[in-house]
Design goal:
rod-shaped; about 375 residues; four-stranded antiparallel β-sheet; Membrane-bound Lytic Murein Transglycosylase D, Chain A; Immunoglobulin-like; alpha+beta; seven-stranded antiparallel β-sheet
């Protein structure tokens, strides 16, 4: 009995142990299966998240490309649409050409102008003694009258070459003279005239100036210079105004004084030209005067001084007062010097038939209407 019970107890214990082992093994299997399923699910989620991130990146990239290149793409689409429209809906319409009517040419007879020879000057020179020499041209074997200050003073005869010379024995008194010529046979007056100033100081300060329609030409210039300061011309008008023109160093100042009375100043242009006009009143014929033209540097120091002493001659009575335009001149400044006011430039323009007062040329000869 005892042995039987022992055997049964042993079998029961083995069963318990086997059952426990089986349960543990089952639990481990379940655990492994759960872990395996869990890991599988986790990997699936990770792959899904990676896929979503990649798709978002692609979408953002596509959006950035469209945002950056939308205008060229739109232009390309418009060009394609226009090309398709032209290809599909082009209509071959006839082109109409309108030719303007051309009037019949008008044939006008050509007026033949015969060139008429007029007396002309070759030279007018003032000698040391004060005598003048006038030489010129006209058709051969003709008579020429020499006119000084509107008076015929002599008649000369041209040679076979059409040349003549007039040289009076008596010297002209100091003063201003206007010389012109007249063809006595045909009563034709010379187009040009010569202005002559004979100085009391001698021929070195005298002037001979040929006045033409296209400008003036100096035949004999005065020696009025001091270093870089040069006086080219001194005009005295019936209205009591004196105008001094010349050359000096650019942008310096030139002043004018008459009998030590300061009259004003002017700036030298970039082209080395200056012109200064001032009211001096009536200068009496036969009286002595002293004119000073001074050049001043930027600090006002006098660097050149020309002193010109003269005896006022009688006025010629000629109405022609001329001015030769220089580089940098304008009608406003010319009118201010000769007529006191720049606004009177219209009078000069009208007298010389200048259509555009802003357009004048160097060496252009202007007649100044001082008596108007």
């Amino acid at each position: 009995m005892a042995n039987a019970n022992i055997g049964k107890t042993k079998r029961s214990t083995d069963d318990i142990i086997n059952d426990a082992i089986d349960r543990q093994q089952s639990w481990l299997d379940n655990r492994r299966a759960f872990t395996r399923n869990f890991l599988k699910r986790f990997n699936v989620f990770e792959k899904k998240e990676e896929k979503v991130v990649v798709e978002k990146k692609k979408e953002n990239k596509n959006k950035s490309v469209l945002k950056a290149y939308w205008f060229p793409i739109l232009c390309a689409l418009l060009v394609i649409l226009i090309a398709l429209f032209v290809l599909l809906f082009k209509v071959n319409a006839p082109v109409k050409v309108f030719a303007p009517s051309v009037p019949e040419p008008i044939i006008r007879p050509v007026k033949q102008t015969v060139k008429q020879n007029t007396p002309s000057f070759d030279l007018v020179r003032i000698e040391k003694s004060g005598n003048i020499i006038v030489a010129g041209r006209n058709p051969k074997e003709t008579n020429i009258s020499v006119v000084i200050n509107k008076k015929v003073v002599a008649t000369a005869h041209t040679n076979k070459d059409g040349e003549f010379v007039y040289a009076p024995n008596d010297a002209l008194k100091p003063g201003n003279y206007v010389i012109s010529l007249i063809d006595t046979d045909k009563n034709i007056k010379s187009v040009d005239s010569v202005f002559v100033y004979i100085s009391e100081q001698g021929y070195k300060n005298s002037v001979s100036l040929l006045m033409t329609k296209n400008g003036s030409k100096v035949m004999q210039a005065p020696v009025l210079a001091d270093g870089d300061l040069i006086v080219s011309k001194i005009d005295y008008l019936d209205n009591g105004r004196m105008i001094v023109t010349g050359k000096a160093l650019p942008r310096l100042r030139v002043s004018l004084s008459l009998n030590d009375k300061y009259l004003g100043f002017a700036r030298v242009s970039d082209y080395k030209n200056y012109g200064l006009g001032a009211d001096v009143g009536e200068l009496k014929s036969g009286e002595s005067y002293k004119l000073n033209i001074r050049l001043h540097d930027s600090e006002g120091t006098t660097v050149a001084d020309i002193e010109h002493k003269f005896i006022m001659p009688e006025m010629t009575g000629d109405d022609n007062t001329f001015y030769t335009v220089r580089r940098g001149d304008c009608l406003w400044i010319i009118a201010r010097n000769f007529l006191r006011k720049g606004i009177l430039f219209t009078m000069i323009a009208e007298r010389n038939t200048i259509k555009n007062p802003d357009l004048i040329y160097p060496d252009q000869l202007l007649q100044i209407p001082t008596k108007d």
